[in-house]
Predict the structure.
Amino acid sequence: MAQGQTTPGIVAGRIEPSEISGNFSDLHAPFASHEAAVAADRCYFCYDAPCVTACPTDIDIPLFIRQIQSGQPEAAARTIFDQNILGGMCARVCPTETLCEEVCVRETAEAKPVEIGRLQRYATDTLMATGAHPFTRAAPTGKTVAVVGAGPAGLACAHRLAMLGHDVVIHEARAKSGGLNEFGIAAYKTVNDFAASEVDWLLKIGGISVQTGSALGRDVTLDALCAAHDAVFLSIGLGGVNALRTPGEDMAGVCNAVDFIADLRQSGDLSDVPVGRNVVVIGGGMTAVDAAVQSKLLGAENVTIVYRRGQDAMPASRFEQDLATSRGVRLMCNVMPVALSGQGAVASVDLEYTRVVDGRVTGTGETLSLPADQVFKAIGQTLDGAPEALALEGGKIAVTGAGRTSVAGVWAGGDCAAGGDDLTVTAVAEGRDAAMDIHAALTRV
């Protein structure tokens, strides 16, 4: 359990279980078939559609929407899965408002885009509900590939390799597969244990075995994997969390937002998840929003996101920011923490107002204090546990082309690799593309 959940001011059951259940219901209700037909009919089916260009996985969006319009949602799902085997999760968590929907012609003309994300969910849910898998394996190649990490990049890579006839072994450090999808996304975005169900469905392709509790550097080494397999794909994510470097950071009641979200996602009963009365989240990205909103939904009275730059600079999308404020979360921008105060357990956060000069944040000398019995750190993560043999770039594994590392026979993708956005959909694209490059390398005559 996270450190902050052990203090007297952080308790479970601040609101009734029935209210918590309602609070954590599906963020976006799924389309009924007639609703999907109406939504699909709004698409112009653009030639050279900008939405396709904006999609990191290059899904043929006009095609799958036309397939929905013509009453073929399962065919639409196959179109999606051909490019993005985790299209079901991406339909739920992808920031479509800043990707495909932002460039939709309807958005430009009417400020109301085609609801591409919800249409994608309708199609993928329809096919997955049948239990069928849309792809079959090619003839066995006799090659084996080790994938380290069962997150979006690793799963996408493993599935594509298995589909091409290779045998894949996934080594996952945690007790469950899914990575960010299972442990790092707000519970109201992926209800009914969808992440685990999606993994089970993906593995129906065959040819993939998963070894949980198997961590790189502790249970297996890169040298051993390279010796035992024809190729290795690393998708180890970002295991480290940036420190505040602020006095009082080690007090009880202060913990990492990613740990809080993971604890919440793995809880069998959300009414048992402790939360503070006055919660402060430090950071401005999606993780900060997810931690803040879920704190409020669990019954915290006052929840504040503290961000050191202006609101326009927040990494979280405007949709996520508006979601937070609509749930009663306060956004405080242009302030930074300078100390955490309390007697053993945190009681307040001391802040200093900031300004940005030549792109750098500086303090103004003006301060204020916020009551806080629980503080979540959400200021980014760092690569942890990368093998020393690998070259790094910007604190991540350096890659060229479709994920080739500095070590022959080793590829990398997802959050651990340099370049790209730290998004589920980007990780899927990188895993898929690396798989195709691995396949080409293994089958080259």
